[in-house]
Write a structure and sequence with these properties.
Two copies of one chain form a homodimer. Chain A has about 325 residues and is an all-alpha fold. Chain A has helices at about 15-30, 40-50, 60-70, 75-100, 115-120, 125-145, 150-165, 170-180, 200-225, 230-260, 260-265, 270-275, 280-285, 285-305, 315-320, and strands at about 110, 115. In chain A, helix 3 (about 60-70) runs antiparallel to helix 4 (about 75-100), helix 4 packs antiparallel against helix 6 (about 125-145) and helix 4 runs antiparallel to helix 9 (about 200-225).
Chain lengths: ~325, ~325
């Protein structure tokens, strides 16, 4: 790292910290994709098209920030432990965006300001690029750093299990299933009953988002803590933080979907409302939604403070609340 | 295990052995899917629909047979080490079938004698069921058996890395990309050149199948060897065996696609020819294809014999050669 602003404890340093995290992640993603040199060029091109589309890199930043919150300012050694998990989380996030955008799902043609993968490469290749990124995440996590150290090997395995839980049927996939089902997009053999979007309660909406968005944010943050040797108490505090952060993030996302313009968001605005999808603003109004987001962010920070943890995760929560795109 | 026929060394015992392996795998898959109890019921139903459609269970059987070939007759302890990896391989195989059958890929409506997942649940849910099975494979492998034994933890991580390599861009996904590309189903931005199916050379056909089919068979067999503590030499021999076995399997598959009837195959026959896909019979004729398959199977067995390995993998290779569906 070229500067010493790796572990800010005040907001003023945060922008520099976030930039440094993004740069580290971009550089590592660039080095590790593909992990295997004999991957067909077209597969690699499609994977990289979506992976290097200029995202916020929030999930890998959560991984790095959690590591720094537990272990203090990063060293080259500690970064080499944590960056594979950080990159894995971003690969899983990107895979989920590619698949969610497909015509059979949300049918979105614009993402991060560019045509979505299936628009550029066709549906078949987009499905495969997503599959490959999901798989590559486990490859990067299990492969790097190359070491037989039993402690590190054990941490990697715990993170892999945690990541699979977050991504799978009980996590992101399950959330998307609930989302599609609420939108009436799933055939249910043996019954003609399809849930109506209007019937989702606030509790069901929260549970859907906990799976779709929250699960991976929690896994990303906890991975950073685990990889630098957090105690169970510390890892639990980081998990509780990320759970509330994820909720706050989703509420802000819903608010931005109502208020934002496509050119700022880099994706189609007003999409949720147009699809008749339930959102926090549609359920609670904009004003109350803003209060709920702020309460979640405060609660996230409180979980860390209770465990006597202070570090970049604290201002990062403020940043999530204040984001405008 | 209720009988003692777990490790046959002669063909006569093989059918009983295969039945026992299938029963063990079915029972474990049933117990482990879903791994997380709060997975949405609809997601679990769609995953199980494709997973319990009566497949041959060849890949998990390879895992168990490789373990028995290395370590001798199975015990409850050795099975608990190996079954998670075996089930993970079958989950990955099933995910790949679901995605390959999608309208955007091979557009198949019949698989293992039943309507394909997207016909029953819709495309969105079929994509998600595949995603979930791919993820669940890593979940099962990393989670079971629950142990902190550093030796077992290290083996699990090696198998997870190997499995990700086999499934990803350098393996199965890469093979399917080459397949789609040869069939002209992938948009290639910036160029109007699309490879013609007729232009695939025999070498390119082999390399495509090594990725699409061979990579996971190799990972499945090697996983069984690794989990019971095979030496590097032994694991390499099992890998070389599975590489040749996978090639032989694919040639037989192509022959059956020409000769078989849909009711026997449980999938649409003549599909490859209809799609203009290159196959071994279309390239070499049926007679020469049969010779090539037999040569691969003999070579597979020779790799084991060179490493002084004898066990169920030997007759299993004969069985792959003789299969009629």
């Amino acid at each position: 790292m070229e500067d010493s602003k790796l572990t800010p404890t005040a907001n003023e340093d945060l922008e520099g910290y976030l930039r440094a995290c993004r740069a580290e992640v971009e550089s590592a993603l660039d080095a590790w994709l593909p992990t295997a040199p004999d991957s067909p060029a077209l597969a690699v091109e499609a994977m990289r098209y979506s992976l290097f589309a200029g995202g916020k890199r929030l999930r890998p930043t959560l991984t790095l920030a959690a590591a720094d919150t537990i272990a203090g300012p990063a060293t080259a050694d500690s970064r080499s432990l944590v960056l594979p998990a950080a990159c894995a989380m971003e690969m899983i996030h990107t895979y989920s965006l590619i698949h969610d955008d497909l015509p059979a799902m949300d049918d979105d043609t614009l993402r991060r300001g560019r045509p979505t993968a299936h628009v550029v490469y066709g549906e078949g290749m987009a499905i495969l690029a997503g599959d490959a990124l999901l798989t590559e995440a486990f490859q990067v996590l299990t492969r790097w750093p190359r070491t037989d150290d039993p402690g590190v090997v054990g941490r990697k395995l715990r993170v892999a299990e945690r990541m699979a839980l977050a991504a799978g049927a009980a996590g992101m996939v399950g959330g998307q299933v609930l989302d599609l089902h609420a939108a009436g997009q799933i055939s249910t053999p043996g019954t003609s009953t399809v849930a109506d979007a209007q019937q989702l309660t606030a509790e069901e909406l929260r549970r859907m988002h906990e799976r779709k968005t929250g699960a991976l944010m929690r896994a990303a943050a906890v991975a950073g803590a685990i990889m630098v040797g957090a105690s169970d108490t510390e890892a639990d505090a980081v998990d509780a933080y990320a759970r509330e952060l994820g909720l706050g993030f989703q509420i802000i996302d819903d608010i931005l979907d109502v208020e934002g313009a496509a050119d700022q968001l880099g994706k189609t605005a007003g999409k949720d409302a147009a699809a008749g999808k339930p959102t926090y603003p549609s359920m609670f109004g904009l004003e109350e939604s803003r209060h709920m987001a702020a309460a979640s962010i405060r609660q996230a920070q409180a979980h860390l403070e209770t465990a006597s943890l202070a570090g970049p995760l604290i201002p990062l929560a403020e940043w999530v609340l204040a984001r405008t795109h």
